[in-house]
Write a structure and sequence with these properties.
Elements (H helix, E strand, L loop, with lengths): L2 E3 L9 H5 L4 E3 L5 E3 L9 H10 L5 E3 L1
Antiparallel strand pairs: 1-4, 2-3
The structure holds iron/sulfur cluster.
């Protein structure tokens, strides 16, 4: 599983980072980013939870 945050859609609400702090983090611009594009096996459900929490569908599963 790979995830990507579209910075143009991210409104920096912080939901994904609160729910999935081992998968998403803030970038230098104050938007969310995936810590690693390729999500390790044991963090996939956490990644999915963060993805589903996004109000603007900025997080894409690749
Ligand atoms: S949940 Fe979506 S809008 Fe909110 S910080 Fe994460 S990527 Fe950005």
């Amino acid at each position: 599983m790979k995830v990507y945050v579209d910075p143009d859609l991210c409104i920096a609400c912080g939901a994904c980072i609160s729910l999935s702090p081992e998968v998403y983090d803030w970038d230098e611009e104050g938007k969310a980013k995936a810590i690693a594009e390729e999500v390790p096996e044991d963090k996939q459900s956490e990644a999915q939870e963060g993805l589903e929490s996004c109000p603007t569908e900025a997080i894409k599963q690749l």
